[in-house]
Amino acid sequence: MDSNYVNPHYELRQKEFRTQAISRNAVVFLGNSITARGNWAQLLPGVPVANRGIGGDITHGVLARLDSILAAKPSKIFLLIGINDLSRRFPEAVILQNYERLVRRVKQQSPKTRLYVQSVLPLRDEMLKPDYLKGLNPAVTSLNTQLQTFTKKHKLTYINLHPVFADANGQLKKEYSLDGIHVTDGAYPVWVQYLKEKKYL
């Protein structure tokens, strides 16, 4: 099992982050490329926002860079991570163990930070080019079920994005799908609106 998360893109993003201080009490969006591609600051004018998404990242990679985020004592963290773990065929137990470690560190290092665990988005098989991504939706559903149970156990907020992004067949909605895994620019305002409607923002 390859848990290596360091690559030139990861290192470049980390270098960029070191020059972009997180404001105290900021809202942090943390995850992989789906988070990285969101222009959260523009979508949330007047809110101190930090985008801490890195394309291709996995739960191990998020853990490795968590300390610098928690040092800023953000007010909220919106976490979305796991699809790249699943694409590498990491066992669900390993992913959940990393979530456990992540939550423990948030509670220890920044206890006033509210951590929101967002459901992993479904894929749209017909649009996917890499074979290793095809047929992963059952694994996504299973992980999300486990994350929902996990958040109850830890008294965290679970954000189910399924109503926003999944069609009747459980696939990523075509109108929001760029390539079967990433979402279009037009999906992000809908996402933010959903978070506002649910009073998470």
Automatic annotation (TrEMBL):
Stored InterPro entries: Ester_Hydrolysis_Enzymes, SGNH_hydro, SGNH_hydro_sf
SGNH hydrolase-type esterase domain sequence ranges: 29-186
A Pfam family hit: Lipase_GDSL_2
Tree of life domain: Bacteria
Protein name per UniProt: GDSL-type esterase/lipase family protein
Protein's organism: Rufibacter glacialis
